Amino acid sequence: MKSTHNTVVRSLLVCILIFSQGLLFVSAAQAADKIYWTETDLGNDEIKRANLDGSEVEGLLSGLERTLGIALDLVNEKMYFTENKWTAPTVHRITRANLDGSDPVVLVTGYVPFGIALDVAGGKIYWTDQSGDIYRANLEDGSGVESLVSTSGPYGIALDLDGGKMYWTDTDPDRVARANLDGSNVETLATNLNRDTAIALDPDEGKVYWGDWHFSEGGRIWRANLDGSALEEVLNIGMDHTPYGIALDLFNDKIYYTLTGTPSSIMRANLDGSDAESLVTGLNSTYRIALQLEPPTTPITFARWPLAVILLFVAAVTLSMRRYRTVI
Question: Computed over its alpha carbons, how large is the radius of gyration of the chain?
Fold first, then answer.
């Protein structure tokens, strides 16, 4: 009976270990989720990050020049960002760094990049450029630059990799447009806008979101079907601010956006625009925003299904106790 008792104890300990590890995985997933944003302060731009609730703000990089674009590669734990300085000595480049801001490496120079988007699996970086073109290059080292689309004022950019499309906002003419990833088949989705800014996609629900500022109506966030139909206003944020950054948390049906103005802030709302809340306030001019959500290194099975862990624990304990009673 002693041997059976020891078996039961060992079973219980294993179950407790599994359960505790499940809780640790949940905590790890929650702790890893971050908001990243770019912040302008008269030539001393910064990249910062915080928890999704706006707590624990930390500066990652400073002394940057006009950082108008940021994108995250969560597979390789890297961030990519653009810089532009028009006064001598001029600076126009795309840089890659670790997610904590360390080890920055310049990948692309000789262009004037604004918004950027990544195709990590395909090994490509896409960006909009002041020249009026949309480019892409190799993600690893910035080589192999290709001009994909020639327009007038492309700004924000987002990729629907499964659908084989890129979407962008254009400031001249003011529109939202899309094309195939190789630049072919350009389509205009929405017009009659004023100053289009950021853009983000929800491919599963077939939606595209973008920011806009109108001289008589102020800052707004819109959404439409991926083909431009069913246009609707999601948020009207007033005359004093412009939503230059938009990012979607599709796990929790949230939209994160920047309110660029004086002062600036980071905001969050439901995807339909309800329950808007301030997360980080009192900032300098905020521009782009990106989300770090459940990195691939986090075992999301436990993080996303804690109930399964609990049921496994209960079942194992019940089975062990039955065996123990049978022996007794």
Answer: 24
Rounded to whole angstroms, the Cα distance separating 149 from 154 reads 10
- Measure the N-to-C terminal CA separation of the chain; round to a whole number of Å: 7
More confident residue, 299 or 144: 144
- CA 199 – CA 178 distance, rounded (Å): 11
Q: Which two tokens stand for residue 272?
A: 């339909």
Of the candidate ranges 33-37, 95-99, 177-181, 211-215, the one whose mean pLDDT is the lowest: 211-215
User: Are 321 and 277 within one domain?
Assistant: no
Give the residues across from 3 on adjacent strands. none
| Measured CA angle at 309 (ends 295, 322), to 5 deg | 160
Q: CA 265, CA 48: separation in Å to the nearest integer? A: 12
Closest to 128 measured CA to CA, from 154, 149, 146? 154
Look at residues 243, 287, 284 and name the one whose alpha carbon lies nearest to residue 263: 284
pLDDT of 288 > 50? The answer is yes
Query: In this structure, are 105 and 119 located in the same domain?
Result: yes
Q: What is the pLDDT of residue 10?
A: 53
SS3 state at 243: coil
Residue type, 62: S
Under a CB-based contact definition with an 8 Å cutoff, are residues 95 and 136 in contact? no
pLDDT at 31: 53
Amino acid at 264: S
Whether the link from the prior residue into 306 is cis, omega within 30° of 0, is no
Q: Are residues 146 and 11 in the same domain?
A: no
One domain, residues 9 and 150:
no
Burial 168-186 (b: 16+ CB within 10 A, else e): bbbbeebbbbbbebebeeb
* Domains contained in the chain, number: 2
State the chain's mean pLDDT as an integer.
84
Token pair in block for residue 302: 């436990």
ω into 173 cis (within 30 of 0): yes
Q: Return left, alpha or beta for 324; rule: phi > 0 is left, psi -120 to 50 is alpha, else beta.
A: alpha
